[in-house]
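SEQUENCE-TO-STRUCTURE ENTRY
===========================

Subject: a protein chain together with a token-level encoding of how that chain folds.

Sequence line: the amino acid chain in single-letter code, read from start to end.

Question of interest: how does this chain fold, as expressed in backbone structure tokens?
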Amino acid sequence: MDKKFYRNNRNRLFEVMDDNSLIVLYSGELKDKTADEQFLFEVNKNFYYFTGINQDNVMLIMAKSGKEKKEMLFIEENDPVKVKWVGEKLYKDEASMISGIDKVFYHPDFIPALNILLNDKLNGLKTVYLDLEQKNLVNYVTSAMKLKDQLEARYTGLVIKNAYDDLILLRRVKTKEEIAMHQVAIDTTKGALDVIMQNLKPGMYEYQAETYFDSYIKYDGQKDSAFTTIVASGKNATVLHYTANNCKIKDGDLVLFDLGARYEFYISDISRTYPANGKFTPRQRQIYEIVLDTNKKCIDYLKPGLSFADYYKYARDLLAKGLKEIGLIKEDSELVNYYWHSVGHPIGLDTHDPASRDIPIDEGMIITVEPGLYLEKEGIGVRIEDDVLVTKDGPVVLSKDIIKEVDDIEAYMAKGRNKK
């Protein structure tokens, strides 16, 4: 992504900030995994959205006073000894080139710079914004929370505001550049699913099917999956977030794949359900067609101004109607025995992009459409998920090239088997 993108995002953030205020954002920290190893670093996406910097222990300060606007980045200085073990981190000129921020400093300058801004009477800064995202986790403490306590102890009368809602609102609508990034991730996922269909067979283990996806996205240059891949065969597909992926796939099983790639942190989130032996049974096809019909109609139903509540209800009504027509249920209330999740969510830099469900769907959002039906006693689980761009002229299915019709799936899987 070009630095102009991040500069434009910061300008939009300046617009929603009060006059005489500043904001501090953190990239995040490395987390210990074991005595001598750390988890792979995952950058805070709100920070990344405004800087393009994917590195731990980086801070951003943006200050606004009248027409004057200041931007400063604070990075770790490279330690020559540490570089020999773990490699180089960004240098000042590199951080500036990525973010479009001219003023880049090292960590020791962060607190002094913050104090100078807050003590400068000419600036008259009265408000500090921090990303104070709340999570229901034990001992959940962030750098922003620690800074809040420090500022409240030192600066009497300073107003501290939680910027989280403003930050995620700015991320809500996607630009052309972001849509293009999503499309790359989706196209990669299509390629991986094509390979899976050509190689899926009874007798292999779920994790063996998963390796086709992992290998494809890594070979394509996208080293990371968007989330933990689900490969669920038979009854396992009736568990919504099944991730063990360790069972043998039996002849006659349906196999549910819920997976995604990511490109420059922009993700795909796709679900497809395939017959292990290449052919749907009449019962499997019956359930699959109900889900597919719901998927298509929910896509057509997506439009700007639609509430998430109405969107979810529309899907539930369609699924209930389908199950009543085949005699599986008599009342709509019984649907909960076969379907218990929402029909979709926003995607972006996160798989479940944070966005208030109380605000109607906006033009420019990318929404998943993922109805499903789960018949535990019959060992049938079906979910079909597409990624859809919402526009005023109608929905644009970004994943339209990933086949989902029964006849197309069977024909493609047969083609793959005939090659062997």
About this structure: The mean pLDDT is 95.
